[in-house]
Design brief:
- By secondary structure, this protein is an all-alpha fold.
- Helix content is about 75%, strand content about 0%.
Length: about 150
Amino acid sequence: MKKWLIFLALVLSACTTTHQTHEQAKTVFDKALTAYQTQNYTTALPLFYQASELGFFKADRYIGLAYLNGYGVEKNPKKAFEAFSKASDKDITSQYWLGYLYENGIGTEKDLKQAIYWYQKSAQRGDHVSQPAIDALKRLNLYINRYCRVTY
């Protein structure tokens, strides 16, 4: 019985720590987002990095956008690609941006198969957040049907 009580205490302690870390990450992310939205990118970027280190996956999307667009840093498409890749397992907006980068060969080799894969992954939710990916798939589908038809 004593072993179970110790185990239960450890589990509850871990849950509390995880919750505190998530709350801390969210607080840092919110500060970063406020700075980003007011175009104070030099303040925002270090905070996004801090939130990312604390496990707040949306922070990597904004790190990617900063490097893609040169917000407070020199444009660096490879770093943008890395940041979007890091967040792509959870963030559908980062999935869209990966599709965009693959489609246009920005920060990586141009690869339409990978672009379609990431657009499809982003579009799966089918809501307003995934609309850019849905639109990209429609556009690529029109392009493929118009210019890539095989005639026999």
